[in-house]
Structures
1.
Amino acid sequence: MRRASLALTLWLAAGAASANPPTERDLSAGWRFRLAQGTQAGAHTDLKDWLPAHVPGAVQTDLLALKRIEDPFWRDNEASLQWIGLSDWDYRLDFDVDAATLARDHVDLVFEGLDTFAEVSLNGKKLLSADNMFRRWRLPVKDTLHKGSNTLQVHLQSPIGKLLPWLMKQPYSLPGEFDSAFGDEPKGKQTSNYVRKANYQYGWDWGPRYVTLGIWQPVRLESWDTMRLADFHVAQKHVDADTAQLEGQFDLRADKGGPVMLAVDWTAPDGTHGHEERSVALAKGENHVALPVTIAHPQRWWPLGYGEPNLYKFHAEVSADGQAVARVDRDTGLRSVELRREKDQWGRSFAFVINGVPVFAKGADLIPYDSFPSRVTPERQETLLRSAHDANMNMLRMWGGGTYLEDAFYDAADRLGIMIWQDFMYGGAITPYDDAFRESARIEAEEQVTRLRNHPSIVIWAGNNEVQTGWDDWPDRQDFRKFVNADEVKRIDDGMRELFGKTLRKVVSDLSPSTPYWASSPSTDFDGPANVETDGDYHYWKVWSGSEPISHYLDMTPRFQSEYGLQSFPVMATIKAFAKPEDMQPESKVMRAHQKFANGDGNQRLLLYIRQEYGEPKDFPSFVYLSQVMQAEGIELAAEHLRSKRPQNMGTLYWQLNDVWPGASWASVDYFNRWKALQYHAKRFYAPVDVVPQRRDGVTNVFAVSDRTADFDATLRMRVYDMSGKMLRESSQPVHAAALASTNVLKLGDAALLKGADPKRTVVSLDLIEQGATVAHHLLYFGAARDLMLPKPELTWSVSDSGHGLVVTVSAKRLARAVWVDTQDLDVRLSDNAFDLLPGESRQLDVQGTTDLETLRRTVSAMSLVDALKEGKQ
């Protein structure tokens, strides 16, 4: 949650107009750390001396930088590094303070984030006992500082070491998520429920267990006199095509009352501008004052595919006695957001309506970028968002078991037109019901909503991930209810409803009333059971977790599917970054260590689905490739089914976009931002226009799916091929594709499609053609790949320089299923990949990244499905 400097952006006065401008001093450099005194050092006695540290950071990253530990992601190092999170640590900074600083009326020490149980002392005086990773801590220290050298110390307690002795004395343990695989907590005794810390760091079914400690956000001194501008917010009271009725809201702290002048200047994307000002009287203490701003015919912010993500620039200024005492700049987009829930023939709708237009949400769920948050740079955040943008995603769901990301992430989402579904950080564990926990949660929520509410990309706040559905339906929760007496069960249930149904809802309603709030994902917002097909959002896991066939995706049409997924391995270049050659088989110790589903047994689940759909992999690289083919084609089936059911369904967010480390997971973009096959498929199945053939029980329905806001006319061309190369038949028909809709344009039985051709050797090509250009393309097969008589395609490929960049050309003599063009460990991306080629077809792929012609020629290769299967097994 790193953010821009408040002192400099909110306080900086204009030149010499203010005699005593506020100042900020960064205190992130010069820290040292050590294993805390009294902690059992074991083999780590060398860590009891002070060592250089990085702030922001974590103990694990500091030890890694000093080469005191090996790479936490290499092979099975995870097990040997658990001691770090079980130990206590000290951080210390010695810094000088001058007389000018001490002469200011106020000097505040600001920690943007402490991870997590932290005792802060300055010059031997205890200032704070922090207990929430997600809060900012502002401490007045003018009377504690002295001229010259000062010592700031932070003592960090292991959250497990602190909480586990207490938990073991309790009559019960609240149900959590994943038990530790390393024995540091007994089975069923999870401390993570009881602390406001990122849940995923305790281990998840896609990531390792690294319980971090550290000063994970910047630290600074703020010095100021008389008045402090704590926040400026552009509240959007009403926005439509004709007018934007706004309010510039100033949060001011004043040492004394008196008049000030508020001023707001705005500049539109096209350069037009305006100015508003008014005088207000401040009272001593906290002041919340506002300045109305009206903009005619606003250039509104639109999500990707629906218009431009326009951003306005706002400049706010506070003046007293003719002098500017505070100023701030804000960029924001003007837009209206509605979560539309209307009764209809399918139940009750769940649709995001932006500026009055119902938007079909296309995207994925976002998990943390890294096990160690401080390693994530703004550039890395934007790179992943651009991967989402390039795959035609218009929404990402920020999953509730991680961290609130820093401003740079949301800035990039604003610019790219990507809507953000923002969970509060509750990952599924049952929460305590005590007042202290709820109060800490309330303050955390107020700080985060205040920080993020100017971002037009945030279109919903959700209370948590899977807390309600887990409490209602999961077997361990049902067993817990039987074990604990009914009165206590009611107190726990009431506590969750109070927190997620009232406390967090009120925070959003008070601070960002134009943004919808949703109690849990999935849920019906406490209006009945959670995770139902006819109301609210839905998480579907019978495929994969329940081992049901992939075809069962076609059996479910919820109102909004916010989670579903299939696993795969990353590409071999990424696997080589954490494994040795001898580790390259699914059941090796290292490969199981990087497969977190079912404690490593997930690789057998992958093989189950690979064998069901394709056959037997001939070796480990083929297993890796087939896992990606299975994942990509399975999620494509589900996503296109959901799109074809618009408006019954109005959103598909698959699990998950990214990885927290290199390993097997549900991600479509791996830890190193390498695209898996699924990401390339998503670019096609999330395209603004798609042609979707769905074959069930020998009957195929073809849908023209359009996110365009206007109808259009096109031609549906159907070509039937023998897989060896002969075109058997061609036909065309006109299509009128309705705006913002799925139009059923064709229905045919197998007999009408095949006309006597062998279904095992036949493929149908469907193209939607508009004004001579193909706007959507899809192939239809008559059965699972393992049941087809796929030919050897005789793939060829070449590399050339087009004059505008390098190009790879791939050709197939006969049908090529699931072509994958591999560039090994070159840091390049192809414009397309993971596609089928018809007999005689070629495809040109632009190469994005830095390499040269000869290197690429030596490196590039291509394969198809038949190359990965044991003979006779496809």
2.
Amino acid sequence: MTSKSAAAAARATVYGYPRQGRNRELKKAIEGYWKGRVTADALRATAAGLRRDTWEQLAAAGLHEVPTGDFSYYDHVLDTTVMVGAIPARHREAVEEDALAGYFAMARGTQDVAPLEMTKWFDTNYHYLVPELGPDTVFRADSAKQVAELKEALALGLTARPVLVGPVTYLLLAKPAPGVDPDFVPLTLLDRLLPVYAEVLADLRAAGAEWVQLDEPALVQDRTPAELNAAERAYRDLGALPDRPKLLVASYFDRLGEALPVLAKAPVDGLALDFTEAAAANLGDLAAAGGLPGKRLVAGVVNGRNIWVNDLEKSLATLGTLLGLAEWVDVAASSSLLHVPLDAAMERDIEPQILRWLAFAQQKTREIVTLAKGLAQGTDTIAAELAANRADLASRAASPITHDPAVRARAAAVTTADARRSLPYAERAGAQRARLGLPLLPTTTIGSFPQTGELRAARADLRAGRLDTAGYEERIRAEIQEVISFQEKTGLDVLVHGEPERNDMVQYFAEQLTGYLATQHGWVQSYGTRYVRPPVLAGDISRPEPMTVRWTTYAQSLTGRPVKGMLTGPVTMLAWSFVRDDQPLADTARQVALALRDEVNDLEAAGTSVVQVDEPALRETLPLRAADRPAYLAWATEAFRLTTGGVRPDTQIHTHMCYAEFGDVVQAIDDLDADVISLEAARSHMQVARELAAHGYPREAGPGVYDIHSPRVPSAEEAAELLRAGLRAIPAERLWVNPDCGLKTRGWPETRASLENLVTAARTVRGELPGA
């Protein structure tokens, strides 16, 4: 096919779409099911309606092919675990008795059975459930979900393409099951898994699938020759199947690099590649590999992870270059649109001109359709759209929101001394111990306490004018009093105020910093039914006035024990926002760090002796390719140290991280120079404590002994056993006792019981120490 005919064949599609519905109907139905207020049939009906509405909306917008199988009640990797029959032994009975209840037990656990481990999906804030595999794992095909959803779409008269997690990525994401040799390599199960995928593909073909998409994002990471050989073998075998649909292998989030020629030469029918700035090298690499003669190329030229409008003319230029490299070229987003909110048109509080800079899932869909039309029919057919797009891009570039000379001058004046504590840790530690007077194995929490319905209602009433500021603040004071009282009675050593005034750990600060925009409906799934509204970091950042000092000082006035000041760190402020793309991330991080530095200094001046600057996203934002990591870690750790470097030696700086592969960033954790770090460790059985010990981490650490992403209450003995495991890696004088993460999403009854057990465990193990 010539380039001209390739262009004429251009179609529009997406890899996936937000699942929640316009008003988070899925979240409400699932949580209602968990509480017994919604039946399983009602939940299934809500889900089916949301799928139908999504597909019909995408088709009406002009997509030529809609995705199926990307919908999930909780997580698409967990759905894959069900599809291949890799149910952990401890959950099999529950799944066999009630498939839906068993599915949620794998995700959330029960009082008696632990859930699957959860961690971040590559470098996004989406969390997936980690498959647990071992040499005895037996795979069995269960394509019921995938076939049923395909049939639903086909019944609507739509062209549909099922989307599955590919077999290589599934195995690379997996971990050895509990009790299995930790050196076991799940990828060795590939030959056992491929026949299961073959059966699923045959089932989908029989159900009417012409194409099936197999997502292999793990191949954009650095891969060994053995892993690349596994990918070559997987797609050689799947491509050779006599009874299969056409196969589209997709990658996203970065360049494929050495995996690209492997997939280009495989006997599959097409590739879907990311061609946004993060993966721009894919274009040259594809040309160097000889293109895709006789095959389909799905070109991800619209950013699926950020919310800025596409530069349509730039994307058309990229598409034009790609036309000669494949039999035909289709247009798509660079990844699933799961990572962006649903519809920018729902926002009523953002200035209309600024709103035109933003593209959520619906707007991105229109951009994809526009680009496909321009590619197929010529740019004259989209002249009006191109003119409007040029005007929107120019408006953003010229806006005073994006440039504050004072902020830029301050950032330019930063010196290396600004990002350094006045004394090394060994000297600071003694001053801090003298000031705080804490016991061995001090207990604390990560920051937030349960956000009750009453608190959320109070915030809603304040916004709606049903409650005045005085009444709202009285409600916050009462909540802080309750939280402080509970912690004192329970026996916690370092307290928190509970953060009742905060809607979200990033949004709360974004709403008080210049340069940020807040949305009302910009919900994005983080995990399960946990949705967040990432703010939009649109311009230069500064802090007009203190953000946390008032409530922290009030909490401290209620107790003689230290109360931590709680801040979100600069890297997490970037990672959990939709960050500006018109300047280097390092420059933006420095601006945010300076704003937070002012807050840290004000907290210290108000008498706060412990300040926690959370950086749960430090590992999440780590580039997928090793070659790109040193530069990132240099500016990321500098931003943290710039935030905290101005305090006195006897002010103790904490940080917190959760749900990530910490071994990848242990040197960076060390480089932060925080006095204490708390980390998720309960689901991973204290793995991080061992990683810190292997590194020789010299400061204090609190590997979590309470998994807060599960409703189960750990017993005191269970927490004590985890604590003993921590002590085998970290000396008692440097070990803290805390939950894995904040308690915002938990209920008060389970929180009370769990923290009481945590304190009991600490006292028990403290009594076992030599000299006790």
3.
Amino acid sequence: MDLPKPLLDPPWARKPASPPSGDEPVIVPGLAAPDGRQVVWAPGEREEWAAVRPFGAWQDGEWEQAAEEFRDGRMGYEPTRAGFLAQAPEHLARPLLDKWEPHVTWDFDHSLKPIVARFETAAWDVAVRLAKQNPFGTGPVVLPFLSADVARLVADWLYRLKSAQELAHAWFERHGLAAVPYLVPDALGKRVGPRRGAVKALRTIEGDVVAAARVHGDEAAEAVARLLAAAPPVAAPVEPPVRAPSLPRWLDADALPRPVLRDGGELPRDAARTLLLALTVSPGGRLDATGVVDAAAEVCEPESLTAFAWALFEAWQAARMPNRSGFVLAALGRFGDDGTVRRLTPMVKEWPGRSGGYSSAVQGLDALAAIGTDVALTHLSGIAQKSRYKGLRGEAQRRLAQIAERRGLTAEQLADRLVPDFGLDADGTLTLDYGPRRFVVGFDEQLKPQVSDESGVRRKALPKPGAKDDPEPAAAAYRRFAELRKDARAVASTEVARLEAAMVAGREWSHAEFGEFAVAHPLMRHLARRLVWLSGGLAFRIAEDGTFADLNDEPVEPDPAAGVRIAHPVLLGESLAAWSQVFADYEILQPFPQLGRPVHALADGEGDGGRLERFEGAAVPTGRFLGLTRTAWKRGAPQDNGIEHWISCTLAPGVTVVVDLDPGIAVGLVDLNPVQTIERVWIGRAPGDPSSMIANGLAGVDPVLVSELLADLTALTAS
């Protein structure tokens, strides 16, 4: 077949246009730009930036602890660190800002704006560094800055970057003639790169540029006048030459499998190399290679492109994952499939533990988001919830939040939509065809696949294809089951935990969402029908056929206008025992403790005065306290000798339960004190500040949250 033109004639192979006239250099040696840094705000701009809502929130009394977490690295998520700097008392924030070196690969102007508004030149270095790395997404933070280094940076953007043209023009419109003294030394200097940018900038600025240049002397002003007089016409702007991409030294292009054309045969060698070169080109620059990649996707078999991208990835791994190779994971994002997701995700989870592996892990998250299938987003969601690396969890959560925002959803609503159906039938089963025999796959209360034969008899496992089975369909069905088992294992614990958290938090689904994402969803229906639900005061369960039944097994229909939530046993009251009997009669096993969940309540007068004294004095292994921090509990700020003397759990705004410990947990050496004595359990407005103790204790707090709190404390102190 005839290959598309972009594969035969890529943009970097085309003959460049003749350079415009009037671009001959004019050199005046010995000039130096003014020193100093100025912040020039537009009317109301500083107030607008200061009002940007930062990430994270802290209460009075928590600032010292948060500062310690910032210093020792426990506050690893950069937007949270930025939010702390924007909000913390200045005596804590300013020293941390001076040493802050965030490593981010995404748009960061939203996080930086309130910091720049607050600290101005003290935030200069970090803002300029990140703007250099991401002109389009972070560059806006340098709009108020005026100095030699920023003028050179923005002039370079004006000359070289299509994606930053609007921003560069906005900067020069703001600073105008005041920027001229900073540009003239470069415009009349010997270095080609800075000169080109400065010359174009001078020709952009409106007003008497020559007069503004006279601060460098008459010779410099006359030289600038000659540059302006020789300016090429507007129709022929000064543009840098397009630099052809090159392959990294570690990559042997001929060692990769060539993609297969849709009408047969392999992609020619030169075209395959062109595709590789196009993949190395970053988007957003003057050299746009997306047409080459799109052309390859048009004429090549998708499976072969996936294999091509994975072979590229393996070559990168074999070369020990050299830096400046983000195009490798971007290629997986462009051509990867669900199989890619299953192989890539375990590595993404482990990379932060390797030296220099964190940035690769973040790029791996981008690849999963770019693949964008249900399986890919499900694995991304799993990392967001369960990664042992806090920073990676935050990055995954940020990408999911971006996806949710683009779709106009909350994070919880997106999570509903990310649950894959795995190609199951409407009744939540999968039929595997071996030819002469068939097997039906269902799921238990933990979403483990269960296999039955056609007569409904449960089997311990799916049998391997036998001699009497049709070879091809039987082998395909056996592979299909293996994939399903892996995928279900990746989803199961996440979805069970998500529903349990929804029960505790009291999340409500709309009637329509409940029907689509719980009752009718082929996978989630296996969990939903094993729970008791509440809607407008009506408690019900989901029967096998998808209808709803009340405590007496009578059919009911919830009010379509009412929300639906998972019934916490506290809310079932006296009907709890009866519901438990119904589930026992039907032999319904639950995915997590609901009906059998311990129900706790405060004794009369308990908590008055701000104390929960029944838990005080208990000796508890330190490991139990550490286990609590997997949920809503947080360890206290390290005090003298790095000892944490409390853990705390915030139940509602301004209501926190604090457990004081003796001798306390040693940071970095948690086994130093293997047993802790609970000195005091108190309710206050902020941990670490006993003076904030609330006299009426937990009055007015949701009884579900009180029950969960007491359950934690009871389990903690159980012998």
4.
Amino acid sequence: MSAEAADPGAPLRRRSRPRIDLRRLGRVALRGPVSRDRLPDAIGHVAEAHRAHHPDADLTILRRAYVLAESSHRGQMRKSGEPYITHPLAVTLILAELGAETTTLTASLLHDTVEDTEVTLDQVKEQFGDEVCYLVDGVTKLEKVDYGAAAEPETFRKMLVATGNDVRVMSIKLADRLHNMRTLGVMRPEKQARIAKVTRDVLIPLAERLGVQALKTELEDLVFAILHPEEYEHTRALIAAATGPDALLDTIADNVRGTLRDAGISAEVLIRPRHFVSVHRVRRKRGELRGTDFGRLLVLVTDDADCYAVLGELHTCFTPVISEFKDFIAAPKFNLYQSLHTAVVGPGGAVAEVLIRTHRMHKVAEAGVVALGNPYAQDHAANAASEPTDERADPTRPGWLSRLLDWQESATDPDTFWTTLRDDLAQDREITVFRTDGGTLGLPAGASCVDAAYAQYGDRAHTSIGARVNGRLATLSTVLGDGDTVQLLLAQDTASGPSPDWLDHARTPAARIAITGWLADHPDEAKPDPETVDAGGPGADGAAAPERDAQPAAPARTRSGPRATGVLVDGPDAPVRLAGCCTPVPPDELTGFVVRGGAVTVHRRECPAVAAMREIGRAPVGARWADAEGRESDAGCRVTLVAESFGRPRLLADLTEAIATAEAAIVSATVEPPSEQRVRHTYTLQLPDAAGLPALMRAMREVAGVYDVSRAQHPAPAG
């Protein structure tokens, strides 16, 4: 295998088209306009590449765009010495080879005219229409953005959001950066390093998220050569010295072709060389490179079913490396990527990685959003009839970019937006979790139930109290895995909010921004208050948090408790809260205590916390229900019940069904680890009326295996 096969200086279609001679192209460009019916020679490469993807494309608009661009840039030179028109031509060729549609190519030819010449946006709009004008304007705005550490965060946010409304703007910008990186050698080393770092930190992650792998991989290699020249040269030497990988991969490829031919599967089997950074990563992972580490097999088929047929044949006729199998067809990556990944053992024990995908998947894997064409063409008539708006509904926009547009609106602080964006770009892997309603959520690796709650419910997630992950009760801090099924549990008390501890478990920008915003808006309510710990989360010994400055044990969380509008207390007017440790309901006898902030917390008189408060010198406050007959307010009543049972299958499901049948809502629930085949369940429930409590407890006791149901009576801790 030659080093040229993975040379970052080579064009995108290395094997089929030689590198453009920019000086010759510059001379052609300077010949001036041509007749109206003739395509300028200077864009012959663009026309050829464009027609390869779009045979019926009308090239008239490209001719007109070239004539305007050439005449506008005439006399301008690049630092490398070529006429400036060679830059928009090269950028347009990159996009044409990726399969961009005509409107994108037209805007690409004109992308620097408004910024660097006398051409105005009004002229572009008049001659080429609204779409081209919109794209040129977006790229022009991006040209004004400094992506470095000193970038103005608010400016960057506005520009990035503007491009997010049409992904073609960012596609042009990425192609523009790629050509600039290819010709960066004329600049001073320190400026090369600065541009390379910005490309590495911002633009390469954006290319990854937009799925434009062809641009991303070449940008990676160019940055690698500038920032790590010694390691780059070492990798180049390894590739150049590798004499046998082609033979090894060729042998395995021939065997794969024969296997698929015998199975009657029509497939194209190719050897796909790794680029420099990929080889470098493999070497760092494995230490010593194997002969087959310099490339991978690519199997292209017609439809999805053929992908799995190929996989079955390979795993049947070869020894598979099961740990290498990944199915990105059933669960596509966040950037639209789909493919089956596997690895098989060939002759002599050589291991070859194999990618299996359809031709359509391959096009999207290489070009990402660029390959999806004009996302607005089908809805053009409908859009024209609707009210004008700055926001565009893009049906092909990847999930990450859609989420960016959502959470940036909540990040009112520019610095918060910038920091969050950089952190989000650093996430290089995404997982898919399934909702119980059949939907899916795309989350970064390491995301927790907190992230899932905000991804599914937005601000409603402030009332989250727990989750079920794969059918089992879980805390909000539980880290989710790819393919998990998650059901989020929300409290009925809409006034409750998140705990500051949630920030320790939030990985997504949406979750962190929403939690931070709520805590900033509710500084008093956000402070931990042991008086209002949910009873659903006692420690392993069943103890509730005492009424003193102590943090509750996980999985309990602190939040403002419900205001007891049905309770009257003696003394001055003050907020009244029902204690979470005993959750009194009518007709329980009550005792209150003044706690921090002047609020009065009301307990059942027999609650162990009452004795503990008296022992430390707290004076009780008289409290009673507002209605002498024990009727509760319209909000119903909240109570904590403990069910003790023998362990058996479906016990949790049967108990939950009994609770639902009694028209009670589960606010929070915990299940302690089984001890000697006995299980203890603790539920905090919201009932429409306290009168229904006895019937509910009877229904729970009737569940098979349950031998006792009682009101929560947590022992008060000493001292």
